[in-house]
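// run 5 | inverse folding | seed 20
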């Protein structure tokens, strides 16, 4: 189990891509009042899940699984994947009922449901890292009369990510597909997609040590989380997502119980190298600097409550404090900084 609360600040950028499309037109999400780009926490969690499953071979509860050609499991069917015997082999509800009736012939449907629920709960939590990280709500059903659910609040929570600058209207790109629009047709399909030329995005998250007791979150899980945030972003290779680069991740670990600063993403700001350049004209990380003056100030004020800060920084991101370039591990004296090595 983890013992310390911690906060995460993650900054990455997107070039000529769609960081998170809306449900209607798959357009990048824009706050109409400010012109800032928005990325949902669901998108970041999907990045982490996909990376941990594909590259770290970790079991993930929330993923698409076909149980028949063209048919995707719902949450109820997925939950039953974790109805396992003592050897870890999947068993059916009828097999479970048969085994239980050997000891208690008149066992009720409610009792069968609760045994089933306990088996699924223990196995899913032990096997699925995303449940330990983000929590879960899954329905459990023995029959039409006996239903229940399993709910855990995730110890790891993220706010929506927001760009540190205005991004303007998404650009519509039109092109032709590789195949005809229908068999025998001469005209190829028309492909349309929306992109942002550039967006530098900040995510804020928290890891709550109290909630971790319920899901069984471990220090190893947290290591994999940070790996998934950084390398998951770097390994996004779908057409709409390629072009994303992690630039900075900080994990502020506290030694004081039940305490955290909060809103670390509000303590940083983007500074353009050319003050006459419009936000919407930014195209490269080399055109901006990240000002951490306010972040350094609040860390300084709370340094007695901080155990250490873990970090990883891309070499192309320039950090400044009070107008001067500075290494990220030098922004506050008296706090231990530890570089992440994944």
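// decoded
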């Amino acid at each position: 189990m983890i013992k310390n609360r911690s906060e995460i600040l993650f900054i990455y950028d997107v070039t000529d891509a769609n960081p998170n499309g809306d449900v209607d037109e798959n357009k990048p999400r824009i706050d109409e009042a400010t012109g800032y780009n928005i990325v949902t926490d669901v998108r970041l969690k999907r990045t982490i899940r996909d990376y941990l499953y594909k590259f770290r071979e970790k079991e993930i509860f929330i993923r698409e699984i076909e149980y028949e050609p063209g048919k995707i499991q719902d949450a109820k069917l997925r939950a039953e994947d974790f109805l396992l015997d003592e050897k870890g082999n999947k068993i059916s509800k009828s097999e479970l009922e048969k085994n239980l009736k050997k000891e208690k012939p008149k066992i009720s449907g409610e009792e069968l449901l609760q045994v089933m629920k306990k088996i699924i709960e223990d196995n899913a939590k032990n096997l699925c890292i995303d449940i330990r990280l983000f929590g879960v709500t899954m329905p459990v059903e023995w029959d039409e009369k006996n239903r229940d659910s399993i709910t855990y609040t995730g110890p790891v929570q993220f706010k929506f990510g927001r760009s540190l600058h205005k991004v303007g209207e998404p650009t519509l790109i039109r092109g032709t597909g590789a195949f005809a629009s229908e068999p025998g047709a001469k005209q190829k399909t028309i492909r349309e997609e929306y992109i942002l030329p550039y967006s530098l995005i900040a995510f804020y998250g928290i890891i709550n040590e109290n909630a971790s007791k319920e899901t069984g979150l471990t220090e190893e899980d947290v290591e994999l989380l940070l790996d998934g945030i950084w390398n998951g972003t770097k390994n996004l290779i779908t057409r709409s997502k390629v072009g994303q680069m992690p630039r900075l991740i900080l994990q502020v670990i506290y030694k004081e119980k039940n305490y955290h600063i909060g809103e670390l993403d509000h303590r940083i700001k983007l500074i353009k190298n050319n003050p006459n350049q419009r936000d919407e004209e930014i195209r490269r990380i080399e055109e901006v600097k990240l000002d951490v003056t306010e972040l350094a100030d609040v860390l300084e004020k709370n340094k007695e409550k901080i155990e250490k800060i873990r970090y990883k920084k891309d070499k192309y991101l320039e950090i400044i404090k009070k107008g001067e370039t500075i290494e990220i591990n030098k922004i506050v004296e008296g706090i231990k900084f530890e570089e992440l090595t994944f």
